[in-house]
Amino acid sequence: MKTLPSFDELKALAENDPQALEVLRIEMSEEIIDSASESMQPKLRAQMSHINRVIASGKNPNHVNALLMKELMRQFDRFSTAINNPQALTERSATVTTLHPKRNEGTVAIEG
């Protein structure tokens, strides 16, 4: 497995070659996922996919950091709930409304 470069090396990559830093992030993440148990790999891949979507939605590096911090705090809160009040994770209520499509009597012409 690759060793994480020093902070100074990562900083230099971020400043001079952000694409190489992104490649390193993905490669190292894949190595970690591949080294996990087979039962954990799908969960880790799903988490990685979510992280990638969060990163892609950022407008600039500072925005990405803020979004990732928000996500980390959300996950930390969920973890805290799992430890301190686990039943709260399964207590959900919802109102389900069945929607019926409007029945058309005849044909509809669409112009365009």
Automatic annotation (TrEMBL):
Highest taxon of source: Bacteria
InterPro entries from the UniProt entry: DUF3135
Protein source organism: Grimontia marina
Pfam families: DUF3135
Protein known as: DUF3135 domain-containing protein
